[in-house]
Design brief:
Length: about 230
Amino acid sequence: MSGTDVTIAGPDGSFTAYEAGTGPAIVVLQEIFGVNHVMRDICDDLADQGFKAICPDLFWRIEPGIQITDKTEAEWKQAFDLFGKFDIDAGLKDIAATVDYARRAGTGKVGALGYCLGGQLAYLTACRTDADACVGYYGVNIQERLDEAASISSPLMLHIAGKDQFVPPEAQKAVMDGLAGNTHVTIHHYPEQDHAFARVGGEHFDAEAADLANSRTRAFLQEHLS
């Protein structure tokens, strides 16, 4: 299934999003490469599973329409530059606007699903919005925002890569310890996996670990959004 680009009105201006499918809505939160082919494929896959998937362009304030890959050094440099310029709090306002749009466009309940930068954003979406369920894959810098965890009031699932080159062991431990007492949070740890182990075609893609994480995510979202 393939989708289309739509426009969402946010508090600071309008931005585009890739939308596919029908059903309960899932806001898909990008990596540092923009709303690229990988993100669009994830949306199409969710659409095939019976969801409406919506992936907003969160880099629009810096440069609209970013769609780069993880295949060249120049693109990695550009991606990290975008990551450095990205305003998390402004991005969360756009995510909240997308959640509101998704609640109107879908069948009621709304989830969020994010990877890398989007993994941190999925955690913060659980903290700051009324999304019904959130999932984050190998989120970066969550350990710096654990003070917001008390605001989580809906189910959150995090997938943590044990050998994540961008999330050192002490940061992983801080996240797991900091969220251990929160009954809304489920954490899965993959001891032998590196960052982006679920990115199809990526350097650290691991099919077995990705299938396990994705099956857990699918069951979680189906349980809480249907």
